[in-house]
Amino acid sequence: MDNMDQIVTTVLQEIQKCGIIKEQNLIPVGISNRHVHLSEEHLISLFGEDAKLCKIKDLSQPGQFACQECVTVVGPKGCIENIRILGPTRAKTQIELLAADCFKLGVKAPLRESGKLTGTPGIAICGPRGCVNLSEGAMIAKRHIHMTPQDAERFCCRDNEIVRVGCCGERGGILDNVVVRVTEASKLDFHIDIEEANCMGIIGSDKVKIIK
Amino acid sequence: MDNMDQIVTTVLQEIQKCGIIKEQNLIPVGISNRHVHLSEEHLISLFGEDAKLCKIKDLSQPGQFACQECVTVVGPKGCIENIRILGPTRAKTQIELLAADCFKLGVKAPLRESGKLTGTPGIAICGPRGCVNLSEGAMIAKRHIHMTPQDAERFCCRDNEIVRVGCCGERGGILDNVVVRVTEASKLDFHIDIEEANCMGIIGSDKVKIIK
Predict the structure, then answer these.
(1) Which listed residue, of A105, B27, B30, B193, carries a Cα 20 to 30 Å from A41's Cα?
(2) Where in chain A does DSSP place strands (E)?
(3) What ipTM is given for this predicted complex?
(4) Does any CB of chain A come closer than 8 Å to the CB of residue B139?
(5) Is B195's Cβ below 8 Å from some Cβ in A?
(6) DSSP letter string over A27-64?
């Protein structure tokens, strides 16, 4: 009977997370490795006066792309080579690290939403034409969902709302504190980093569900 | 009012996971990096005829220890150096990898409980005195809780039961499919790997809670 109780509980949990779900309620997953967004000024400092970012792949969010160019990020305890730049250039340079990178680099990067750099630590970035000592910009990206106002209506979410996300599978579970970002120019996508994806056993073709 | 509903929901979730909890219901966390357990035969093959494992640190489980000795693991796509050996030697050699390592090495290691090697892929291990081509033994460790029968009674758990574990904090959530392992020789500890810890924002001094 104990076993039966456990089976019923487990099945109910799986149904809540993954089970009787209509396809239109599922959210695609975008998995990020560590990456850098550069300002125009820093692009020139690192890659030279005439530098232009060279797109190799479009990303899920309209207008965003992975670039051929990579940089080395150097912290007080170590460095990481071949960190991909994501384009286009932005108003401020920002380095999105994995939590494991912070130990290797010796930098205490906080969990932040993209663009919210105030109070983040600086770090050095090196490119083929020079290095830049940033005074701020190192962060671990806070997991988030991009969606349009139409998606937001469908999912009963508001911009900046904090939701939970259920992940199915052998290594599944629930991720708390997921920020919803609603803009007209978004494409529906749940953004996590490689460590989060590996923890939950998620690959790029998986889909997840908002749990309220 | 919408905001109020959200606050109430969030607070209730936090209370369920982390809130009004007696200290004796919390479980300490042990975070593992990739590591290797060697058989006597493979210890000799890799480190020489008179090799002995040299303890540098006791681990949470009685009799288990981290060794001075490290090995290089080599897969079809790459290698990883300086993988720590955990002692004492075991009946069979086993390599516990992070999910990220599997991409780097080019090996599809399944999620497994320690010791359950049947069907796991082989890989090469190299030490200072030679290499061994394993026919099996590469796995990603399935998250688990070690406890004594007395702990099991306190937590209302049985050996081999699958439970969920709630993790507090800014990057918290719930980890599903956690195996409970009950033995007299255990010490209460929730074992996860570095990627799982980083995903949940957990450090070694944190404590977690079983959620049924």
Answers:
(1) A105
(2) 27-32, 35-37, 55-58, 65-74, 79-87, 94-96, 111-112, 124-127, 130-133, 138-141, 144-147, 162-167, 173-182, 189-193, 207-211
(3) 0.88
(4) no
(5) yes
(6) EEEEEEPSEEE-BHHHHHHHH-TT----EEEE-SSTT-
Chain A residues with CB under 8 Å of B164 CB are 13, 173
Pull the structure tokens for residue A85. 């730049």
Tens-place pLDDT, residues B121-161: 999 999 999 999 999 999 999 999 999 999 999 999 999 99
- Residue B197: which residues within 8 A CB-CB, separation 6 or more? B29, B31, B203
CA dihedral B13, B18, B24, B28 (to 10 degrees): 130
A168 to chain B: closest CA residue: B176
Tell me the pTM: 0.89
Contacts of B8 (CB under 8 A, 6+ apart): none
